[in-house]
Amino acid sequence: MEFAAKNSETAWLRFQKTNCLYTSYGNYSIFVPEVMKVTQVLAEATKPIISFEILPPTKGKSIESIYNHLDPLMEFGPSFINVTYHRAEQVYKKRPDGSFERVEIRKRPGTVGICAAIMNKYKVEAIPHLICGGFSKEETENALIDLHFLGIKNVLALRGDAAANEKFFTPHPHGHRYAEDLVQQIISLNNGKYLEEDIMDGVKTDFCIGVAGYPEKHFEAPNADIDIYYLKRKLDLGADYVTTQMFFNNEHYYQFLKRCDANDVKVPIIPGLKPLTSKRQLSMIPSIFNVEVPVDLCKEMLKAKNESDCEKVGEEWLLMQCRDLLKNKVPVLHFYTLGKPQVVYNVLKQLF
Ligand code: FAD
Predict the structure, then answer these.
(1) Lower Cβ count inside 10 Å, N or C end of the chain?
(2) Please, are residues 65 and 57 in contact by the beta-carbon 8 Å criterion?
(3) pTM (predicted TM-score)
């Protein structure tokens, strides 16, 4: 049984109403959330929608830290919440005899569990990120099977970065080199094709696949055109939409849209937005993410006298970016909330 959505409703209310089905179990009718694909959410949206991206807590921390982060933001009715994936790191641990051994530690485990918890608690789509780095194809297949069994229908397929002890990305010996290979594997599973060829009539998964795009080009790509060429390959293989790397100058996003159009990229391109909230980030963000921080933003940040002034500068800049994007009819605003949900909250409060 579906309810009609009114234009005036928030995306959250709309999600609650349109995304639920009554299912009968014996004499009982229970409310069961119907999982929606990102592409479906976007196609049906009557106004710009909101989404967030969060990091799993570091090992040893409670999931309450995720809830504390998300609870206030749920007021804005996000249509989906992405959860990042973090590859294991090699670290050296001292043995009692003074020698060192190399061990693998995953500092932020829990992506799949957090997605299930988010869907269960907030009744909102959760999108796990999947990475090639550090995983064999078989481990990836098993993870996809888990996600399918959990009722998760959206994934963001990524290559991942080089391991901390490597200069360049090295694929797992039995894994994927590029995100396009991961997209191919997910599409195969959507067609019921498993790695073990003797699995006949395998159940078909139904994943909606997002991939990463770079308005300022991926740092390894020799130029923006070649980067778009490889982006298009991911889409031609069957990926459904693109989420962009953060940008602080909307012009980069608009130019990217133009390049995508010129290269016949027709899928939704979700702008990724992050508040810049400290002086340290002025050098850290460009070096990690290879994005430009505009001169005016740098100047304002450098004038800030304390932490709260810095956050105010970041908030105002993000607000200005969002207003401009909405004026230019973006269908969705995707926020990398990471450590600063309050700044994103303040921006959303002024926007909606
Ligand atoms: P790819 O699409 O494989 O591209 C990598 C590079 O190779 C590009 O330069 C591309 O032009 C080139 N290329 C692609 N295909 C080919 C080919 N067939 N032949 C030759 N060159 C090719 N990282 C994480 O570890 N965890 C996360 O959760 C995470 N989330 C992210 C979310 C978003 C929205 C974005 C934008 C990035 C995220 N990242 C994450 C970072 C991402 O993993 C890195 O940017 C990584 O370096 C590239 O990933 P990709 O999926 O874009 O790779």
Answers:
(1) N
(2) yes
(3) 0.91
